[in-house]
Amino acid sequence: MARGPGLSIFWQTLLLLLLGGIAVVFVVTVSMFLTAPPPRPDFNSLTDIAEALSGRKIRREPPWRVMVVPHHVGRLAVEPHRLHLDPDERQRERRLSIITQPDEPFPDPDMATSRWFSHRLAEQIGVPVDNVRLFFEPDQRSNMPFHWRGDRRVILRRGEPIFFDTVVAGLQTDKGWRVVRTPPRPMLAAWQRRILILFGISLIGVIPLAWLFARRLTKPIRRIAEAADRMGANPQAPLITEEGPAELRVTAQALNRMQGRLAAYLTERTNMIGAIAHDLRTPLARIAFRIEGAPDDIREKVQADIEQMRAMIAATISFVRDTARIRTIEPIALADLLGDLVAEEQEVGRPVTLGAAVPVGVTGDAMALRRLFQNLIDNGIAYGGGVEIAIARVIDEAEVRIADRGPGLPATVLESMFQPFERGEPSRNRATGGIGLGLSIARAIAQEHGGSLTLANRSGGGLEAICRMPVRP
Q: Is the pTM of this model over 0.90?
């Protein structure tokens, strides 16, 4: 069953680290919930409501006594100190809002009232009880996660009601009703916002560390992949740098050993082909000597076959020698290299022109690249009567197009033209072309440089050879 492409190792590592970091932050947050003191609930007392309605201060209970113990004091007795704290300085999230309206206030749904609370409120303000209104939400109705129809309670502290939920109260004055109301609860309380901010800061601190760690881990993997790709194109490419974690170093060592064996195998096979081609010269020479006594018509035909075989052997030996490996690695400016080739061709009167040429550089063997482009130029002139050359840059690749206006080729045989001894012209007449190794040599050179070579028919007629190679970093 085919599977779609998965996430890269970098993203998998990054996500794993982020999840681990989030888990750590979550554990720290839960620990804070369990060990830190609970947040103080926000509330409004009956005195707070009376002060808001009357617009003046009302006497309250004495402030708390607080004992301050210095750090340097051990078990010595310390006199308590009275801290004169203003109750209004208590931090509130839902401070009562005050408005004046002509009509008396009405309760919201699920609100309750108490005649005793209303009497207490009227006494604190100093007005008749009929001049005040008080409605409130019992705590058990709004604070619990599930709403059931049970008792509705209000917490009393020293006989004074404490309201943790919404309160609506009103005082009748000469200008109408002065109404105070608890504003709606915020979506997130202050302590919740602090926890979320802490969580976000921790996450922001984890992300860069996870990113750097993932990049450091995957960088050797990416280098191994790039080196393996180069090795596939050229077994003589530089070996992979053995770096990174132990597993990646073992992988790099295995790939380097494989590259060495592959290079040795190709060298052995190449030398064998060259030796066979070289040794074939001797029997061909004997055949040519012995055919001298044959009749003229037979001798001429056999001699032509012998010459053709000699040419094929010479081309094979040249192919084996020249494409076995890249001799030198140096920076090359393609525009300069192809400009020199075009100038040389034009000096001898060959129809070769250089069109648009974007300055772009590659790395490789200049002599091998000259042979690559020379073979393509020769093919274009032989089969198309002349060539046009263009140089461009496509993302991170240099692209060279060598085009002619010849008859072209059927699309089904374009790829087969790169097979050794394959010719677009079916006859073996050397006057109409070579023996069919030019394109094979050109593609081998392109691949040795980490590039590619393809053929395509041009719109309007003709054939186009497209060579792409990595741009010099």
A: no
